[in-house]
Amino acid sequence: MSSLEAYRQKVEAELEVAQAKLGQLKAEAKSAAADVQIKLSEETDTLEKGVEVAKAKLAELAESGEDAWEQVKEGAEGVWDQLNAAVLNIAAKLKD
Questions:
Q1: Burial track 30-63 (b if 16+ CB lie within 10 A, e otherwise)
Q2: Structural domain boundaries, residue 10
Q3: CA distance readout (Å), 52 to 1, 20, 35
Q4: Which end of the chain is more exposed for a tag (fewer CB within 10 A), N or C?
Q5: Given this model, what pLDDT does residue 67 score?
Q6: What is the pLDDT of residue 35?
Q7: Residues of the chain with pLDDT under 70
Q8: How far is it, in rounded angstroms, from Cα 73 to Cα 66?
């Protein structure tokens, strides 16, 4: 298996985890107080957009050749870091 393929599989797995967390956070937001629910709804909408960006980066990664994938990988990691931070931020707000 090439480094590109291994990395692509890793990112796909991480994206699946993020989507599962997003679903869980949405469920928790439904049971939160109304004011918190509104704020979390806005943040989960932003997070959903981030998931779509991450999916696009993953598709770009899959289409890149072995020689170009390092550049695509850097962009994908940046998107992943932002997505992960957003998930953690929402989870922390739900615990407050």
A1: eebeeeeeeebeebbeebeebbebbeebbeebee
A2: 3-95
A3: 26, 14, 26
A4: C
A5: 67
A6: 67
A7: 32-35, 66-69, 72, 94, 96
A8: 11
Assess contact for 75 and 57: CB atoms under 8 A. Answer: yes
Both structure tokens of 87: 């998930």
Q: 20 and 85 in contact (C-beta within 8 Å)?
A: no
75: three-class secondary structure by DSSP: helix
**Domains held by the chain: number:** 1
Residue 48 DSSP code? H
Does the model's pTM come out above 0.85? Answer: no
